[in-house]
Amino acid sequence: MKILVIGPYKWNSLEYSTGFNSLVAGLHKTGADFDYFPDILKQRHDFTPEYIHSSGYDRISYPEYSDMVKKLRSGEYGMIITTVCYVDYNGGKHGALSKISRRLKYSLASNKYRMGGTIVSDWIHAGIKLPPVIVFDDKDNQCIWPVDFDLLENCSLYFKRELPFDRFLSLIFFFLRLEDRKKLELARKLRPVWLSYNSSAIALWTDIDDVRPYEERDIDISHLCGLYSSYSRIKILPLLDKLSETYNIATTKDGKLSKAEYFEKIKRSKISLSLEGRGWDCNRHYELMLCRTLLFVTRPSIELAFNLIDGENCVFIDNDLGNFEKLAKYYLDNPLLSARIAHNGYELAKNRLGSEKLAEYVINASMGSIK
Predict the structure, then answer these.
(1) What is the pLDDT of residues 347-363, one digit of tens each?
(2) How far is Cα of residue 23 from the mean position of the Cα atoms in its chain?
(3) CA distances in angstroms from 278 to 65, 84, 229, listed in the order given
(4) Which single residue of 69, 79, 196, 255 has CA 20 to 30 Å from 181?
């Protein structure tokens, strides 16, 4: 079965879709038969070319929009996988000038004006017969925005990063106008998904298998992240300063690290913190586990698609950080236990959480839903 994959309209440091990019890399690695639109690799928009090329995208085709629609109408695709919309699809409701400018914008041939799931919304409104539609929403928000309601209503499955335990909370913008049966129908379409990691990209900066034995690591605790993505990442700094009187602590409070420096420090760390940023899910969780450091992470506030188990393959710290200092001292005083948990985390990340496994998870669940 051939798949039509419709990605984000740009791929750069500000607007690229991390989880969706990992999905595409995984589809390629698993040998899936798919067309990918639009041609974001040729555009690049100043995003690091080495990162893109590392995933071996030479086999991916880039149909022009008219070509893509022709193939769609002829029944060439058995499934569509799309991102969410990137603009307010309710264009035209703000007056005649808005309606005219929107139609002009989306009539242009340039790929960059056709933004992710907005294309599929266009097709839905145009009454074009579509194969099963799968939505991959890797945004930070737990809610589904009104702009994406058409996708949710017309898709077979909606994969959502940051899926709350109470799935009805994702429907908060539609809740009052939906009948109970409709709420349940839409909630049942939702599936948890994770950002994943791209091993080919990581290999550009470090050899993930070249690590120090746990007992030889010289950094006790590392906290290497964008500190201002969340209050928790700042809140923990005084606790780390206190521990630094006894232990060797590494943080990014004095400046951002290069990717190579980041991985080098992680591979020297006994414990590595990964606190939630704009969302709970984060690539860093899986990168840390790959480096065989003991992952300290706040308790999940979302539904997970895999088994992250406290004391088995990671350590959960309370979301208010109240037990952090006690746990840090305990695990640093018990290196054999810490090394075992770190190894289990490595096995989980290596065997279950890479881009290939992400692609397999999405495809297998999708195929099961459309049979």
Answers:
(1) 999 999 999 999 999 99
(2) 9
(3) 34, 18, 6
(4) 79
